[in-house]
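Hey, I'm writing a tutorial for new members on how sequence and structure tokens pair up, and I'd like a real worked example in the thread rather than a made-up one. If someone can provide the structure for the chain below, I'll link this post from the tutorial.
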Amino acid sequence: MDELRAGLQDSDGAAPPDRERAGIQSVEVGFALLDVLAAAAGPLMLRDLAAAADMSAAKAHRYLVSFQRLGLVLQDAATTRYDLGPAALRLGLASLSRLDGVQMGRERLPALLEQVGHTLALAVWGNHGPTIVHWEESPQAVTVNLRLGDVMPLLSSATGRCFAAHVPRDAILPMLKDELARAQKAGRTDVPASMAEVTTLLDEVRARGAARVVDTLLPGIVGFCVPVFDSDGHMVLGIVTLGSVATFDAAWGGAVHGPLARAAAQLSADLGYAG
């Protein structure tokens, strides 16, 4: 412990009178090294690591000695370069495991609502398919017959198409076949008519990074859904918005899709997604 304290002291080794404050300051200074390593594309030489953290090599080395003993940093014996160690990885994974994407999404919807001006929702994959779990209604909301807990169809809703494009095909194949059969029986022309058309549609959803429907789920209603991914690259939720065709910008990259896509990308990044 004495060695750890020494490593976390200020660069001149002197402990200021206010020990509690000094401890906090030294941890903040030392963390700069870990922050640089986390952002780096690979292991770094001491001089480059110190320079990026805005400190001298001698000062950085004292911190790195303690971090190595804790397993937060590793030094390659052959190249002498530094990288994050197993303890840093465990801390990162523990933090990710505690992240609640839905809760984080709920907290961000009010600000997103101010940007897009249309009703927003969050959906997750439930036991029976894509399920609405949160609803943020716009003051100018159109009347829609949707409720919390509703399961969205895979082929006629933006939410369903978004999830269908990202969940394993085997898990949804029976549902897709059932919806196709019902659509064919009803003579619908606004949804895919064959598995080949489904494949083409879902390929487009993945390519665009979002799903859109116009006059498909509900008459006169436009809907978008963008995926949010976790650190493993799995889609954990969809951010959904819908509105009237009369006031809703349905263009790709437009006033609605643009902010929605950026919000989903930021939430994914905050959940550890690096794609």
